[in-house]
Amino acid sequence: MQIGFVGLGIMGRPMVLNLLRGGYRVHVWSRRAESMTPLIEAGAIGCGSAAEVAASCEIVISMVADAPDVEQVALGERGVVEGARPGLLFIDMSTIAPSAARRIALRLEEYGVEMLDAPVSGGETGAINAALTIMAGGSQAAFDKALPVLQCLGKKVTHVGANGAGQVAKACNQILTGAGVLMVAEALNFARASGVEPAKVREAMLGGSAHSRVLENHGQRMLERNFNPGFKAWMHRKDLKIVLDEAHRLGVMSPVAAITAQMFNALVGGGDGERDSVAMLQLLERMSGVDSE
Amino acid sequence: MQIGFVGLGIMGRPMVLNLLRGGYRVHVWSRRAESMTPLIEAGAIGCGSAAEVAASCEIVISMVADAPDVEQVALGERGVVEGARPGLLFIDMSTIAPSAARRIALRLEEYGVEMLDAPVSGGETGAINAALTIMAGGSQAAFDKALPVLQCLGKKVTHVGANGAGQVAKACNQILTGAGVLMVAEALNFARASGVEPAKVREAMLGGSAHSRVLENHGQRMLERNFNPGFKAWMHRKDLKIVLDEAHRLGVMSPVAAITAQMFNALVGGGDGERDSVAMLQLLERMSGVDSE
Questions:
Q1: In this complex, do A133 and B98 lie within 8 Å of one another by their Cβ atoms?
Q2: Residues near B170 by Cβ (< 8 Å), separated by ≥ 6?
Q3: Residue B170 designated active-site
Q4: Which terminus of chain B is more exposed, N or C, with fewer CB under 10 A?
Q5: What does the angle CA A221 – CA A183 – CA B231 come to, to the nearest 5 degrees?
């Protein structure tokens, strides 16, 4: 099967390699031509545009930064619709607003292109190890067609519902991971300010009902004071903006997401946008006069 | 070994039964004499006061509601110090403020009684199944002496640090579980408001970095709309008050704990104090006009 892939960044690159390992013929395009070179060397076919990618493929995947990029790739000049044969399946794996995903899906329908929103969780490590969590929204037929391809990229693939449902699940996921990072940072900062060893407190909590993957993984990195990404603070902030925009649109109260977004504003505003979101611990330390040295 | 136990409520009762099963001679006292009857039938020895309990024992455990109750049991009229022989170990397993635990420990020292603060996580089920998570603060000698007894009550016993450290760990635990319940409720409410099946969203998230025990257990109860305690909302609210009082005293910023406490105020203020904290979902639904039927 011929698969197209547009967006060859930190996530896209290892995903293309996994598709090649899975035996697929992969046609790639990136705005920055140099991103294609190592993938072409690994066996991918370089193209001159998203339209050219689409012309050769049954499935085109995009993995880009935000909704305008997805719109450009799908519907813009030299975009997917300009090359697509009827029946093409477009899978957007970027994290964008559910409403944007639904809007793009509707527009694509006019061209006979079906869309699946299939955002991921698991970050660069998950992308490299084909261990992503994938949350898909779209028709059952589209999901069934996509499943073998998605299973080549992730360990857990869930069909959440209709178009946009994948992005809704991802938004929920980002509430839990964003607020998770903040509350673990709060707890460890509270422990240190109380004169108690944070590592011991984390150890005590790991066995019980406070256990979470964030306490396990992000908590460990906080203790090691390893603030390298991982998942950059500005990206988590962007995802929380999606949650709050949707919450506003729907009139849904989401108080923890709101305060978490404010803390990410402070983190990014304070110059830590390129660091991992676990740098939240240092922000709380500064704000509480806690000496971590 | 002779062990005393004061406070025979939902938690204390099954804990005494586990100590009896462990082969200990258990001396019990409760303000409400009728609480003692089933335990006496099970082999415990009923007493007329905490002082009388202390007179026969090497270790006295208390499991009561709040700091004033612990103070009364330990230092009040006919309290532990009035019966204690020197070298007695007093283990308070209630959840109280770290500063109160330190203060009571200091007062007990004057009477030659050593104290361990050893609050628990795991609720009634954990108490019944001897599967509590126990977080202990006190000297190494006190911890070593208590350990076999604590292992009879819980699965995971951690020596966190000096007096008060157990309560600090419990406070951190309650940040994570309280905010955890709120953020899971937020995510499931957001999903439903977005027209997506909350069960599917939870399923999609469980495999990835958003995984937590709260999403697993409390999330499941929210989906089943089972709001029976479990852990009552007013108790979680009390625990968050401890966190925020300490945060205030220390000048430590804890934004998620603060907003969570406000939401528990609304939950308890709205008449749901006796229900499980997962009733938070219904509060959010009401506040967002989400129809869950």
A1: no
A2: B95, B119, B120, B121, B135, B239
A3: yes
A4: C
A5: 125
With respect to residue B293, please indicate whether it lies within any of the assigned structural domains: no
Amino acid at A230: G
ipTM: 0.96
Which tokens hold the place of A90? 């477009």
Q: Which residue of A has its CA nearest to B231?
A: A209
A133 and A126 Cβ atoms separated by less than 8 Å: yes
Closest residue by Cα to residue B90 from B124, B57, B133: B57
Tell me if A255 and B259 make a contact (CB, 8 A cut-off): yes
Tens of pLDDT along chain A (293 residues) come to 999 999 999 999 999 999 999 999 999 999 999 999 999 999 999 999 999 999 999 999 999 999 999 999 999 999 999 999 999 999 999 999 999 999 999 999 999 999 999 999 999 999 999 999 999 999 999 999 999 999 999 999 999 999 999 999 999 999 999 999 999 999 999 999 999 999 999 999 998 999 999 999 999 999 999 999 989 999 999 999 999 999 999 999 999 999 999 999 999 999 999 999 999 999 999 999 998 76
Domain boundary among B131, B162, B193: B162
Please tell me whether residues A94 and A182 are part of one structural domain. no
How far does the CA of residue B49 sit from the closest CA of chain A (Å)?
33
CA distance B200 to B207: 12
Task: Say how many domains are in chain A.
Answer: 2
